[in-house]
Amino acid sequence: MIVITSPIQIANEINTIHALFENGLELLHIRKPDFSETEMKTFVSKIKTEFRHRLVLHSHHHLALELGIDRIHLTEKNRIATSQESLENWKKSGYTLSTSIHQMSDFEELSSVFDYAFFGPVFKSISKPNYVSNLDFKKELEQRKNNKTALIALGGITSENIETALAFGFDDVALLGTIWNNNHSIENFKLCHDLL
Q1: Per the CB 3.0–4.6 Å rule, which of 2, 45, 124, 177 could disulfide with 181?
Q2: Hey, which residues does 153 pair with through a beta bridge?
Q3: Phi, psi at 44, each rounded to 5°
Q4: C-alpha angle with apex 186: 44 to 158, nearest 5 degrees?
Q5: Is 17 helix (H, G, I), strand (E, B) or coil?
Q6: Which helix (H) or strand (E) holds 125?
């Protein structure tokens, strides 16, 4: 299971991150699109070093080595703008790479350097009001041929619909709104974690 940070700063965020890891979180994607390089360094420096190998950078990728992070996420836009040679160089340097896709055809065409990809919103987004996909994810995933790259369900994931997402054929799920858009982050995480 993956958790993605809120794009904005959240009260008590670092303590919540530590509690998530202590309760079994595998990976935390740090998605802070408006952070400067300095803000990113400060944010990551507050996370215990024992958890650094479970962090994934969405921006300021050049800081990864300095911060002790070996996982990089490329947005769809960044992926398209990055050469295959650059992707392969990241991979050869020992980085785990992930990306985001919005159509199954893009997933099928992904380079094998990507370990996993986010696909969504599968359900009505919790963190982005009125953000809904018109795709039939069950039908979309029936067409899946790419089994080199894991496919991660994103968007509106809660303990009530995780099993549905997995039944569609997703390999795992990513949580965002169900963690950061309420006062029961850890309880919600545990409910979801227990279903996997």
Answers
A1: 177
A2: 119, 173
A3: -65, -35
A4: 105
A5: helix
A6: none
